[in-house]
Amino acid sequence: MNFHANEVITQLMLYITLPALILYSLHTTFSSDLLIDFAWLVAMSLYILAVSVFIAAWLRRKAALPMNQKNVYESLIVFGNQGFIGFAVIFIVMAEQGLIYLTLFNICYLVLIWTYGIYLFTKNEQSINWRMLVFNPGILSTFIGLAMLFLPFKWPQAIVATFESVGKMTIPLSMLLIGSLLADLRWYQFRQYSKNSYIWLAASFRLIFLPLFLLLFLLLHAPYPLIVIAVLTSAMPSATTTSVYAQKFGGDASFASFGVMLTTLLCLLTIPLLYGLLQWLHPYFY
């Protein structure tokens, strides 16, 4: 598929199927156990985001890159594709129950990528568009879903069925988009950027080192399914949003696109390895 087809798929998921999937996944009965799980997920999310921001900022300062690549470099490390690919992976591993927890885990991430993510590319040159933050479809659907989760009434069954049928399109569409992104990788781009050690370092932190920081929660005896969700979600490839921000705010868009495609390709190996590591560690902590 060409670039325009990728754009259509991205917009379709961003504005229609992913919000529907979020609303469907949060259509559940509230309980004290869910509240405890929510607290664990928020704690893990805040922790790994803080670690990611700190490490990425330090690596950025040490990097001998031009300014229009430094912001891309930092964004590639901090922000993973926790929406599209994240939902697909967690659905495969943990089915629909996992989507509830993933949505809760992503709340802090969504706020960060629409604030700090833009700040990385604009710094103090432009003010953050708060309307973009508040009216982002991912954030809106998350908070509407959370409100319905805590309120005493639920969506009508016909609406829930619509959310389900539309939302589950996210999984095959995300797989289609991944394949298209990989197919768009050009040999001259691969030859040019594959020699850049910084892009490999960014991929290593995004896919391997940062998720391993969450193993601390094994020592704290957090619920094992929640740790699986947190680790795998934090191991997603770099977000396609990085390419969008680079294009919009004057970063090196081709450098960003290669980073996204490289991490997307490598995650086909690293995600199964991390999942296998979690399964191997499970008997030692539970």
From TrEMBL:
Cell compartments where the protein resides: Cell membrane
Membrane topology: Multi-pass membrane protein
Keyword Transferase: no
GO biological process: transmembrane transport
Main location: membrane
InterPro entries: Mem_transp_PIN-like (IPR004776), Na+/solute_symporter_sf (IPR038770)
GO cellular component, one term: plasma membrane
Gene3D superfamilies referenced in this protein's UniProt entry, alphabetically: 1.20.1530.20
TM annotation in the entry: 12-32, 38-59, 71-93, 99-121, 133-153, 165-185, 197-220, 226-246, 258-278
Keyword Ion transport: no
Pfam families per the UniProt record, alphabetical: Mem_trans
Keywords: Cell membrane, Membrane, Transmembrane, Transmembrane helix, Transport
Family: Belongs to the auxin efflux carrier (TC 2.A.69) family.
Protein name: Auxin efflux carrier
